[in-house]
Amino acid sequence: MFKRLFSTSRYLRDSLVLIEGSGTQINPASLSTVTAATQIGEPITALVVDPKIAEEAAKISGVSKVLKAGGPQYEHYLAEEVSPLVQQILTKNKFTHFFISGSSAGKSILPRLGALLDVQPLSDITKVIDGKTFVRPIYAGNALATVRSKDEIILASVRASAFTPAEKQEAAVIEDVAVEDSNADTSNRTEFVSEELVSSERPELGSATRVVAGGRGLKNKEAFDALVEPLATKLNAAIGATRAAVDAKFCDNSLQVGQTGKIVAPELYIAVGISGAIQHLAGMKDSKVIVAINKDPEAAIFNVADIGIVGDLNEIIPQLIEKI
């Protein structure tokens, strides 16, 4: 017989989740991050550094309270500004866990926050076993590691495709972050210069249920536009691409799927002219149904495909579009 002793200064406290958004809309990846946080079993406090999404954040299922911070320094989620703010909130409120999505902002904020708190962050978790133990991919997704943290504060980024987005609930309480927290002196020497937003009527790649992706086998941008885009339009699908296709300027780099791009897990993933490099597979192999179209019967993509079609893209894709 044994007893488990816990310090009340740390345990039985809330988890803190940073919610990202654009305009008044919350990023779907943040909804999945809340789902991951709920599996800890503790109350969840949401932190928003963009006041425009505070009311929507309060409606996320599982969120018991929203902390709202405002100020132009937080508008673009600069890690140099957001990380010190999160550090002060975590320390002041004795949170045991901090979760953030594995977005570009998350990948920038989490390591800096880890350095400020002298804590080892856990990146890209795909499963929560308990409050200290998590599963995350290693070796470009070819293996899964079960890791256990000994730190008092758990810092983790969440792979959105591994968790379902949280639903809505009745609005939770919204509180303003204390003035001293919002005006933290960060000694920041970085400033936001500009951003280029790619607007599209298509579903957002990271949260789409259907994705049509093109690779180097399409040869050029003209073929990419002529084959991938009409097929995606017919299926009301998002468009993705391999790094080779992006580097060859077939499409914008925001559409890259893979280890150094977006991680997706749609219900349907159609790979057009994609050989199946390990870096690309790391970003899409969790898709529910994978359809591969390639003229090379030995292409690695067929090893993960549920349906494989061997043949000339210029003949198969028009036929497929016509049938749909």
TrEMBL record:
Cofactor or coenzyme needed: FAD
Annotated Gene Ontology cellular component terms: mitochondrial matrix
PROSITE patterns hit by this protein: ETF_ALPHA
SMART domains xref list: ETF (SM00893)
Domain Electron transfer flavoprotein alpha/beta-subunit N-terminal: 15-196
UniProt-listed SUPFAM superfamilies: Adenine nucleotide alpha hydrolases-like, DHS-like NAD/FAD-binding domain
GO molecular function, one term: electron transfer activity
InterPro entries: DHS-like_NAD/FAD-binding_dom, ETF_a/b_N, ETF_a/FixB, ETF_alpha_N, ETF_asu_C, ETF_asu_C_CS, Rossmann-like_a/b/a_fold
GO BP annotation list: fatty acid beta-oxidation using acyl-CoA dehydrogenase
Subcellular location: Mitochondrion matrix
Role summary: The electron transfer flavoprotein serves as a specific electron acceptor for several dehydrogenases, including five acyl-CoA dehydrogenases, glutaryl-CoA and sarcosine dehydrogenase. It transfers the electrons to the main mitochondrial respiratory chain via ETF-ubiquinone oxidoreductase (ETF dehydrogenase).
PANTHER family noted in UniProt: ELECTRON TRANSFER FLAVOPROTEIN ALPHA, ELECTRON TRANSFER FLAVOPROTEIN SUBUNIT ALPHA, MITOCHONDRIAL
Protein name: Probable electron transfer flavoprotein subunit alpha
Species lineage: Eukaryota, Fungi, Dikarya, Ascomycota, Saccharomycotina
